[in-house]
Automatic annotation (TrEMBL):
A biological process from GO: regulation of cell shape
Family listed: Belongs to the Amj family.
Name of the protein: Lipid II flippase Amj
Function: Involved in peptidoglycan biosynthesis. Transports lipid-linked peptidoglycan precursors from the inner to the outer leaflet of the cytoplasmic membrane.
Span of the signal peptide: none
GO cellular component: plasma membrane
Keyword Cell membrane: yes
Gene coding for it: amj
Entries under HAMAP family matching the protein: Amj_flippase
Keywords: Cell membrane, Cell shape, Cell wall biogenesis/degradation, Membrane, Peptidoglycan synthesis, Transmembrane, Transmembrane helix, Transport
Species assigned in the record: Desulfofundulus australicus DSM 11792
Superkingdom to which the source organism belongs: Bacteria
Length: 286
């Protein structure tokens, strides 16, 4: 249970940071320093990358424990027909769904923190410009915590008014762009988890099933690189040139967070079909 809670917490952190990236473009437009904003966010994104490095093997170990417990109980018999192993699969199903739920929770927290993060990040961009490098900025915050305290004062959950303006007006961004974000998030959220569960469905080929997740995530990566990222970049550049108002970038950030939330909910629906598809592909190539 402790291992599962750690995985859920790390998953929430990963999805919270991946949601906060939507606010970086708004901070870049507001300060007219988009390249600096994107570069500075990479420092924060290292936290998500580190969390992912820890989360993945922990989640894999949960699946391995379930498989090994079933193998021990079956004693060389038909593992998949063993009622004990079926109970292990049901438990594993619930545990993975809890991890996906943690992704939803992290996305909600990230969405709520977008207005606050824009303010904090804007101050961070200006501080980086004054000091010239990230190491010097971190050192400055350590030896002179006034800057850090000034940023901390801006950390508070926003009211509904911060989102109402973005949602009240007419939609100024392409609908296909938002629908694609839902699908991409759904695939990306459940890709590895479906592959791990598929490995439990075919334990004799579980390594093949797990590695097949790269194909699933590759589809999401192609869609993101060809549909979502270029459109978001175009809207941001238009706002920096004055062709669009800054409000359009704010609306984009809010709607991307909402569609990302919908994508994590879609992942609950895609989880089992994805696992069955991966099992089919793994059996086909072995």
């Amino acid at each position: 249970m402790t291992r599962l809670l750690i995985v859920a917490l790390l998953t929430a952190i990963i999805h919270m940071i991946n949601t906060l990236i939507y606010s970086v473009r708004l901070a870049g437009v507001r300060t007219q320093r988009l390249a600096t904003a994107l570069s500075l966010f990479q420092v924060i994104f290292l936290i998500a990358s580190t969390a992912n490095l820890i989360q993945a093997p922990l989640m894999s170990s949960i699946v391995e424990h379930a498989i090994n417990a079933g193998l021990k109980h079956a004693g060389g018999g038909n593992l998949l027909a063993d009622p004990y192993y079926q109970a292990q699969l049901s438990r594993l199903n619930m545990e993975i769904r809890l991890v996906i739920l943690a992704a939803t929770g992290g996305t909600i927290m990230g969405g709520l923190l977008i207005p606050t993060f824009v303010s904090v990040f804007t101050r961070g961009i200006m501080l980086l410009e004054d000091l010239g490098s990230v190491p010097r900025m971190i050192y400055k915050m350590i030896v002179s915590p006034r800057q850090l305290l000034a940023m901390a004062r801006k950390v508070k959950l926003p009211g509904a008014g911060h989102f109402r303006d973005a949602l009240r007006g007419p939609l100024k961004i392409p609908r296909y762009f938002l629908l694609a974000n839902i699908l991409i998030t759904g695939i990306w959220t459940t890709g590895v988890l479906s592959a791990l569960y598929a490995g439990a469905l075919i334990p004799q080929f579980r390594s093949t099933a797990t590695l097949t997740s790269g194909i699933v995530n590759g589809v999401a990566a192609v869609l993101a690189a060809t549909v979502v990222d270029p459109t978001a970049a175009m809207i941001t550049d238009q706002a920096m040139r004055g062709v669009r108002p800054e409000a359009d970038v704010k609306q984009m950030a809010v709607y991307l967070a909402l569609t990302r939330l919908a994508g994590t909910l879609l992942a609950q629906v895609l989880f089992i079909p994805g696992a069955l598809l991966i099992r089919f592909v793994a059996e086909l190539i072995t």
